[in-house]
Amino acid sequence: MKIEKYTKLIGNELLPNINLTTEGPFEPIIVKNFSNTWKTIGSGNYAGVFLHQANPKWVVKVYGRKPEDLKKEVEVYKKLGNHESFSSLIDHGDNYLILKRIDGINLFDAVVKGIRIPKSVIKDVDKGITYARSVGLNPFDVHGKNVVMSEGRGYIVDVSDFYKQGKCRKWDDLKKAYHKIYLPFLYKFHPPIPFFIVNSVRKGYRLYRKIKKGNI
């Protein structure tokens, strides 16, 4: 599909028919989608992600807050270029990005559903982080919901915070939990784990990090 026709679909059928809200500054975006042609396939801290079957190779990421940061994410993708650990930027508008689709399951949902996370996924993400640093970026906010695995490969699907300064320990802490808890106790006989338990761990970790930083 030509980009001109795709952007018309976004303007005519997607943007007028979605509502993006949030319950708090540290809670993910809540998506209400009233479109008959666009499917919601994900949401994060800043945006919702949508798919149109007319072109399943692309997705649209629509910002629900901090639209001024969209330009920063565009610059991040330009620096990353085409690398196997990341998506790539196709085009963008005032409040959305068109990205190459990476189809898979994020690590958070994999734990909930009892799907094994192989070591190769962790290694792929490490390679992506190393590459991002080599082009002058700071891999910030890499965590279980921002990493997708597909056929044993790992991909970082949200790079919106890679322009930020400072040290983010989320990926380092996740790797520690993976090696010390996940591999010895869950990997071999991986049971589904109820969403509320995994989500409580996520919220507890965020609170712990805020306390460590002295923000509470």
Brief summary of the model shown:
This protein has 216 residues and is an alpha+beta fold. The chain is 38% helix and 22% strand. It has helices at residues 3-14, 70-80, 107-113, 119-134, 170-186, 195-213, and strands at 18-22, 29-33, 38-43, 47-52, 58-63, 89-92, 96-100, 105-106, 147-150, 153-156.
Tell me what you see in this structure.
There is one protein chain. The radius of gyration is 17 Å and the shape is globular. The protein is built from six helices and ten strands; from the N terminus they run αβββββαβββααββαα. The chain is 38% helix and 22% strand. It has two domains: 3-100, Phosphorylase Kinase, domain 1, CATH 3.30.200.20; 105-209, Transferase(Phosphotransferase), domain 1. It has a five-stranded antiparallel β-sheet, with helices on both faces. A three-stranded antiparallel β-sheet has the order 8-9-10. Strands 1-2 form a two-stranded antiparallel ribbon. The mean pLDDT is 93. It has helices at 3-14, 70-80, 107-113, 119-134, 170-186, 195-213; strands at 18-22, 29-33, 38-43, 47-52, 58-63, 89-92, 96-100, 105-106, 147-150, 153-156. The chain has 216 residues and is an alpha+beta fold.
CATH fold category name of the largest domain: Transferase(Phosphotransferase), domain 1
Taken as a percent bin, the fraction of beta residues is: 15-25%
User: What structural category arises from helix and sheet content?
Assistant: alpha+beta
Query: Main β-sheet: number of strands, strand sense, barrel status?
Result: 5 strands, antiparallel
Domains (count): 2
| Lateral strand order in the biggest sheet | 3-4-5-7-6
Just name the CATH architecture of the largest domain.
Orthogonal Bundle
Terminal residue distance: 50 Å
Helical residue percent band: 25-40%
- Mean pLDDT reading: 93
- Which H/E pattern describes the elements? HEEEEEHEEEHHEEHH
Low-confidence sequence ranges: none
Rg from alpha-carbon coordinates:
17 Å
The strand count comes to: 10
Q: What's the overall geometry?
A: globular
Determine the number of helices (DSSP H or I, runs of at least 4 residues): 6
- The CATH C-level name of the largest domain is Mainly Alpha
